[in-house]
Design goal:
By secondary structure, the protein is α/β, with parallel strands linked by helices. The protein is built from eleven helices and 15 strands. It has helices at 10-16, 19-33, 111-129, 144-156, 169-179, 189-193, 236-240, 249-255, 257-260, 270-275, 294-311; strands at 6-8, 41-42, 47-51, 56-65, 70-79, 90-97, 104-109, 136-140, 161-165, 184-185, 198-201, 220-223, 243-246, 268-269, 286-289. Strand 6 (90-97) and strand 7 form a beta hairpin. The structure holds 1,4-dihydronicotinamide adenine dinucleotide and the ligand O=C(O)C1=NCCCC1.
Length: 314
Amino acid sequence: MATKPAYIAADVVEKYLGYTTLIPLLERALINFSSGREGGVVQPIRTIVPVSKHKGFLGVMPAYSAADDALTTKVVTFYENKTSSELPSHQATVLLFDPTNGILKAVIDGKVITDKRTAAVSTIATKLLKSPHAEVLCILGSGAQALSHYQAFTQQFSFTEIRIWSRTRENAERFAEAAGGKIRICSTPQEAVTGADVIVTATMSTKPVLFGDWVKPGAHINAIGACRPDWRELDDTLMKNSVLYVDSKEAAAKESGDIVISQAAIKAEIGEILKGTQPALSDKTTIFKSVGMAIEDTVSAKLVYDSWTKNNEN
Ligand SMILES: NC(=O)C1=CN([C@@H]2O[C@H](COP(=O)(O)OP(=O)(O)OC[C@H]3O[C@@H](n4cnc5c(N)ncnc54)[C@H](O)[C@@H]3O)[C@@H](O)[C@H]2O)C=CC1
Ligand SMILES: O=C(O)C1=NCCCC1
């Protein structure tokens, strides 16, 4: 008879999901995803159910990786009008199945997975696309993704200056306190962005917050928000004058307003650069438009489950 599925809570996920272990697994997953059939990744475009009455969305993100023999689906909700400042705007759960027989093996908190795997993929893109002389990191937004990106980027790179802008100074100060490092709080997004070598946009904005005229030529931008076809973070000038990379061409072209509305041409997937079939044009102004992929959740959940199992063996 099947045993009951394990429940793996956020604090346990946090413990087992280190960037040093996660990043190489995600690199392999991105390569497999961009290798078509050969890569053994099955990942349909996610289903999104708008909950318009409450300005919310429910997303279902299934994937199977033959290389990892791992089968999961994430269920994620995200709400524009948070009803409480205590409640995160994004909440998620990952279900991990035994791929040989379909048995549900674990129910895993998906919030930490979402925050960390997104930041980890941005570090992968940044390693490939930033200038080798990059010194200044700028983060627009002060929520969960802003913080996970700060943590991942300070671990993986050595920037000499880190700047942040948020809509309110109070939010920016709260962020700086949570981050714990030396951070310059900027009063306007333009002040934060001017002269920055690497920029992260991690906002729930539906209108551009980053404008091409502000951006230093040769900068690299990780654009994390604008995951709905009518949401924007970047303006048309920036979209059209930069080299545009994505996680999934199919998903980004369908889901991100920055691409749908600007009609900017996609150069390549990050997985194609990693495979060596597309160049990393790091001397140009580059954008990594991330929409988030289920396969990233699959490899993250498997890492957590395997580590948890090993540590719970009698
Ligand atoms: N690419 C990916 O894989 C993923 C993308 N996301 C997206 O990343 C973005 C950030 O997510 P979280 O940090 O989890 O959300 P959050 O709610 O924790 O933080 C959102 C931040 O955006 C700011 N913000 C909201 N409206 C704004 C506006 N009009 N102008 C400027 N700033 C504004 C808030 O003040 C806050 O600092 C969202 O758009 C989310 O949907 C989230 C998960 C994965
Ligand atoms: O990849 C994800 O997970 C998400 N991406 C866009 C917004 C909701 C969550």
